[in-house]
Amino acid sequence: MSATARPNLGGLFNGSTPPERSSSIVDPLGPRLITSSPVVDRCDDGNPPESEVAHSVEPEHAPEASNPAAGSRGSAATGQRTTVPKRGTPTPTGRLTALEWIDPVKAVEHSFALLQAVLDANREFAVGWANTISSLPRRVGMRR
Amino acid sequence: MRRVVAIANGKGGVGKTTLTAGLAGQVAAAGRRVLVVDTDPQGNMGRDLGYGLQDGSSLALAITHGLPVAVSRGVRDRLDVVPGGPALWDVAAAFTSRGARGASLPGLRPALDRVRPEGTDEDYDLVLIDTPPGEPILQELVFVSSDYLIIPTRSDEASLDGLVVVAQRFAAARAVNPDLTLLGAALFGVRAGSTRLIKRVQSALNETLGGAAPVFATSIRYLESAAVDMRSRGLLPHELEQVHRGDKSLRIDRLRQGVRVDTRDSLLSRDSSASRLARDYAELAQEVLAAIKQQEDQARVEVAV
Fold first, then answer.
1. Whose C-alpha in A128, B66, B105, B240 is 20 to 30 A from the C-alpha of B202?
2. Taking residues B279-284, what's their average pLDDT?
3. A67: distance to nearest CA of chain B, Å?
């Protein structure tokens, strides 16, 4: 992922922002789904929750432009000025970070993988020799 | 007490099914009772858990007609499965058709509530529901039937678009199920050792989620050879690790016996890779269970206040 502006979806997940369209499985005229929990009567003041009010006035399929992600990405195309730097724009800080970065974990993992491969090969070699020696006739095996 | 957790993203190929199977296997191996529900018409859970492909008609009829759902018992110790399959495509059509007539459908939750483990009076500890990416009705059906949501995602921009889609469906489903809570996001399929990339993507995900839920610290590494080994043999990550141990012993025994080892059927992955992958899943499972406990503790405090 690059350092472009991100849509903030926190409101949709914590309930402070209503969705752009209502649920596909709840009909405006009544619930299509039999649920154990009631659809309404959740607000203490007796009013329907904000999200359901929004459902009744918003179209079933909101236009793409209302998508916060689409909006942020489309700003350049519409000619609006934005403070978000373009993707891939080289910056002195970025160059410095790229030069300085060394991933020690990868090097250590490679080192251990190589060591493990050598140990595996050594063990198989030893087992092979043991097998060869033990398969020789007894007289040859005992000769010094 | 059962906790129903949906695994969803609006984009396909982000590891939903593999993650669901891996988490379920880890939690079941840790001694908890787990039910996996596959609501994906592709039914790929059968490959991950090794029970084969099914048609999903039982689950489809349970959702649309309220019939009892068939359960594949003992897929692993303490792990049962409600299989999915192509018949689940009919659910969306049934909702559209009956909705036009103003009729109601039973939905998923009543069907799942009737499913109980065999041989015990206790309930499942965890119900994990795998969801299809491109089918809004099925995904929202799962959301209105779940307590929690986990969003797996990859590191690319398209996965971010999937987050936007799932956020809209999540918010819409809360009109029916106000208790639905985002548990967190899990980074899936990142190259091993990409520490810098992982930190950057986790930062971007945190920004996108806006503090509504954490991004799990454990990410699942990408290992093509291990993925092929697991799906071709119906093995979970910790089982692949065990097979590797057995495979090595078998190879040594065959060498001792002078039997030539046939490499055509051997595992593609390395044993060290399988171990690291299994450890990823174990750590993520611990994080998920800790997050559930934190949510439950927080709910208790709110009730007490």
1. B240
2. 94
3. 8
